[in-house]
Amino acid sequence: MSDSIVQRVRSANSKLRLLLLHTREALAGRRKFDAEEVHAISEPVRHMDALIEEARLRRGTDPALDRELEAYAGNLNEMQTALEQMRFMLVAHRTHMEAMRGHLETMKLWSDTLRMTR
């Protein structure tokens, strides 16, 4: 039974590391980041919710499980940091788009005014 828990935690860690890599690539502009990515990130975390209590009870008795749980905690911390960075990047993009929209509206007013004077 303990090996099963270790395998499931290891699997969640593997998925989180891959998703963390995808998130970092999105931050670097080499990959898209959308709602599908957010859902993908939540999937291994949701599966771990069911295991956490059982894993806590076994913590200290299985060194492999302890290592995987520590790695999981580290992966979650890194993911939290990456998601905060992503949030700031998305806010900056939204702010830029709103500024550009204002610029386009001003250009349209100038264009309409120019057409009226011709």
Task: Tell me the major beta sheet.
Answer: none
- Structure summary, number of beta strands: 0
The stretches of 5 or more residues where confidence is low (pLDDT under 50) are none
Share in helix: over 70%
Structural class: mainly alpha
The helix/strand order is HHH
Rg estimate, integer Å: 23 Å
The fraction of residues in strands falls at: under 5%
Number of domains: 1
Q: Can you give the mean pLDDT?
A: 91
What oligomeric state is this? single chain
Helix segment tally? 3
The separation of the N and C termini measures 83 Å
Question: Which terms summarize this structure?
Answer:
mainly alpha, 118 residues
What does this protein structure show overall?
The protein has 118 residues and is an all-alpha fold. It has one domain. It contains three helices and no strands. It has helices spanning 2-27, 35-58, 63-117. α1 runs antiparallel to α2 and α1 (2-27) packs parallel to α3 (63-117).
Give the SSE layout:
Elements: H1 2-27, H2 35-58, H3 63-117
Short summary of the structure?
By secondary structure, the chain is mainly alpha-helical. The chain has helices spanning 2-27, 35-58, 63-117.
